[in-house]
Design goal:
This protein is about 35% helix and about 20% strand. The protein has about 400 residues and is α/β, with parallel strands linked by helices. The two termini are about 25 Å apart. Bound molecules: adenosine-5'-diphosphate (ADP).
Length: about 400
C-alpha cells in the first residue's frame, strides 16, 4: 500500500487491513457496477463487442451465484455519434441529446442481446438528479429497483441525457453510480474504467505516479490527486470517481475502482483478489445511509443559524426549525440542497422544504406563527427535517 504521508499511514494501522476487507467482499449481496464509455467503445465510437459479452457473462454468473447486480452504463452519446454522422462529440446540447437518444436505444439493444445469451433479463432505468433528491421520486426509484432485483432482472441505469438540462443532471455517471448505490442500499460499488485504479497523480501525465490499492479512510486530500479523463471519450476522469468514493464511503458503502479489461475482473474482485483500489466504507448507522446522498449534490444556498439551533442539530440530532435561522443567502427552491452555517463554519447540509423567499419570511419565527407569516397553510414545521440533514463533523 502506498500512502500520501505518515498521517494516512498511521490511520491505516487502526483499520481493518486490506486482506481482511477484501476477503469479506464475497459476503456482499447487492452490487452496483459502473462501466465507462472508454471501456464500452473503441476510439471510433463503435461498441467493443467482446467487452459487452464478457460483462454480460460475468454479471449473469454473479447472479447465478446469488448476487443482485445493478449496472450503471455510460456510452449512449458515444454510440449515437457515428449513427448520426458525428466524428467528434458535438458541443451543442441539443445535438448531444440527439446522440444520447439514438445511442441509448442501440446500447440497450446490445445489452439485451448479450444478456439474453446468458439467460438474463435487462431493464432500462433513466434517472435525473430530481429522482435522487425529491423524497417521493427517490422512494419510487428505490422501490422499482427492489422490484426488478426481486424479479431477477438486471437494471441498467443511465442519466436521462436526452431530456436533462444541466440543472437537473447528476452530471456524470460516476456520481450517478454512487447515488444509485445509495438509492438501492447496495453493499458495494465497482467502477470499471480504463485504468487500474487510483494513482497519487495522473499516470497518463506522470511516469512516477504510484498506485494506491487501499483507502481505509477517505479524506478530502485524495481529491487533489485527481486529473481529468485521459481520453476524449472518457468524461469525468478520476475527479468524479473520487467524488463517487466520497458519497459511497460516507453512505456506508465500500467502493472499488478497477480496470475493466482485466480478464474476469468482476469474479476475481468478488473472490477477494487484490485488484484495483478499494475504498473502505465508514461505519454508518443504517438510518444515516440514505441521507448522506446529499453530499453529492450542488449546494444552492446558505442558511445561517444561531447558537441554540447549532447545539440542537449537532448535539441532539434535531431538525432545523425556522426559529433558529438568522439569515438566508442564495435563491433556491423547495427540494434543493443547502448548506447550514454557524458564523463562518459550515456545520451541516440538507434538503430544504421551503424556498429561499419563504425562509426570508419565516426565519426566526416560532412554529405556531408559520401559517400566519407565510399567508398560506404551512406545509412543514421544519425547514430541514433531520432525515434530510447531514451534520458535517
Ligand atoms: P471512464 O470513461 O472509464 O469513466 P475516464 O477516462 O473518465 O474513465 O477516467 C479515467 C482516466 O482518468 C484515466 O485513464 C487517467 O488518464 C485519468 N486520471 C487522472 N488522474 C488520475 C489518477 N490520480 N489516478 C488514475 N487515473 C487518473
Amino acid at each position: 500500500v502506498f500512502c500520501l504521508d505518515r498521517k494516512i499511514k498511521n490511520l491505516i494501522m487502526n483499520y481493518l487491513n486490506e486482506e481482511q476487507v477484501r476477503r469479506n467482499i464475497s459476503s456482499k449481496k447487492r452490487i452496483v457496477i459502473k462501466v465507462g464509455t472508454s471501456s464500452l467503445t473503441y476510439v471510433n465510437g463503435k461498441p467493443n463487442l467482446r467487452f459487452f459479452n464478457s460483462l454480460a457473462c460475468q454479471i449473469m454468473d454473479l447472479q447465478n451465484r446469488g448476487y443482485e447486480v445493478v449496472l450503471v452504463s455510460s456510452g449512449a452519446i458515444a454510440i449515437g455519434m457515428p449513427l448520426l454522422g458525428f466524428e467528434i462529440k458535438p458541443n451543442n446540447l441539443p445535438q448531444k441529446q440527439a446522440c444520447a437518444a439514438v445511442g441509448q436505444g442501440t446500447l440497450m439493444h446490445l445489452y439485451e442481446r448479450f444478456f439474453h445469451e446468458y439467460g438474463g433479463k435487462v431493464a432500462q432505468l433513466l434517472l435525473t438528479k430530481g429522482d435522487a433528491l425529491n423524497p417521493k421520486r427517490y422512494l419510487h426509484a428505490s422501490t422499482t429497483l427492489d422490484a426488478l432485483l426481486a424479479l431477477g432482472a438486471v437494471p441498467i441505469v443511465n442519466e436521462n441525457d436526452a431530456v436533462s438540462a444541466d440543472e437537473i443532471k447528476v452530471g456524470d455517471n460516476d456520481t450517478l453510480s454512487a447515488v444509485v448505490a445509495s438509492i438501492c442500499d447496495a453493499d458495494l460499488l465497482i467502477i470499471l474504467s480504463d485504468i487500474d485504479g487510483l494513482y497519487d497523480k495522473n499516470p497518463s501525465l506522470h511516469l512516477d505516479a504510484k498506485f494506491i490499492s487501499y483507502v481505509p479512510e477517505f479524506s478530502r486530500a485524495f481529491l487533489t490527486m485527481a486529473g481529468d479523463a485521459g481520453t476524449a471519450r472518457g468524461t469525468g476522469g478520476m475527479a468524479t470517481k473520487l467524488k463517487a468514493a466520497e458519497i459511497c464511503v460516507r453512505s456506508g458503502i465500500d467502493m472499488i475502482i478497477a480496470n475493466s479489461h482485466l480478464p474476469d475482473v468482476l469474479m476475481n474482485l468478488i473472490d477477494g483478489e487484490p485488484i484495483g483500489t478499494l475504498f473502505l466504507a465508514e461505519n454508518v448507522h443504517p438510518q444515516m445511509k440514505k441521507r448522506k446522498i446529499i453530499i453529492g449534490s450542488t449546494i444552492k444556498g446558505k442558511l445561517y443559524i444561531d447558537a441554540g439551533c447549532k447545539n440542537a442539530i449537532v448535539s441532539n440530532g434535531s431538525s432545523l426549525l425556522p426559529a433558529g435561522i438568522v439569515k438566508v443567502e442564495g435563491d433556491f427552491q423547495e427540494g434543493d440542497s443547502v448548506s447550514v452555517f454557524y458564523e463562518n463554519e459550515e456545520i451541516a447540509r440538507g434538503i430544504t422544504y421551503y424556498d429561499s423567499q419563504d425562509i426570508q419570511l419565516i426565519c426566526g419565527c416560532h412554529t405556531e406563527k408559520l401559517t400566519a407569516v407565510l399567508g398560506y397553510e404551512k406545509t412543514y414545521d421544519t425547514v430541514i427535517h433531520r432525515n434530510n440533514l447531514m451534520v458535517i463533523k
